[in-house]
Amino acid sequence: MNAVKRYEIFRRFQEDNPKPETELNYNSPFELLIAVILSAQATDVGVNKATDKLFPVANTPEAMYALGYEGLCAYTKTIGLYPTKTKNVLETCRLLIERHNSQVPETREALEALPGVGRKTANVVLNTAFGQVAMAVDTHIFRVSNRTNIAPGKTVLEVEKKLLKFVPKAFLLDAHHWLILHGRYVCQARKPRCGSCRIEDLCEFKQKTSDD
Asked: Angle at the Cα of 99 (from 109 to 73), degrees rounded to 5?
């Protein structure tokens, strides 16, 4: 795919959704970090149902850590892999208190040192909470990048690096939100909704579908 096509794709995304946002509910960098840790292999809707009850009760590392394992499980038990995620959240809270003055760090290295925080989670927090250019490649972005040919790659890291290289600078900050939303609602895994796609004429996917 050439640069002209890529520019027009993201120009249209921006035109349709000038200020894209994550669909996770949060009111602080700490709440976002916890929500993203809980969201691994889970839906944003499912995570929101849990955190909408959790955050009014505990929205600081101290308050959440004070709940303890059983207390926190009462809120997280509806989320997949909750035993491991709950332990990771509690340990993350402890480390934030002990190492970071209860603040979410703003560097990748410090974020990835927290339990349950991998590269993708760190990228989400850096981009969404702190306004840094970062590309959090999930299954949706990986699929869209390969299917459209915007940034094809065999691994998540390869796609991430290509997106950072190929997405026009004017659109880099919001690009991962647009791509996630496009993959979630239009360029879906089982059957892409090509007939309803804003970038169908620019996309290089050869097996276009109708929406019937």
From this structure: 90
Nearest to 29 by CA among 112, 119, 126: 126
Query: What would the DSSP string read from start to end of 39-80?
Result: TTTS-HHHHHHHHHHHTTT--SHHHHHHHHHHHHHHHHTTST
Residues with catalytic annotation? 120, 138
| Non-local CB neighbours of 126 within 8 Å, separated by 6+ positions | 106, 108, 111, 132, 134
Of 35, 37, 26, 117, nearest in space to 85 by CA: 37
pLDDT per residue as tens digits for the range 63-89: 999 999 999 999 999 999 999 999 999
Cβ neighbours of residue 156 closer than 8 Å, sequence gap 6 or more: 120, 137, 142
Distance, in Å, from the CA atom of 35 to the CA atom of 61, rounded to the nearest integer, reads: 13
Spatial neighbors of 19 by CB under 8 A, at least 6 apart, are: 174
Residue with tokens 């934030």: 96
pTM: 0.92
Cα separation, 175 vs 198, whole angstroms? 15
Q: Are 191 and 176 in contact (CB under 8 A)?
A: no
Cα–Cα distance list, 61 to 5, 81, 195 (Å): 45, 21, 46
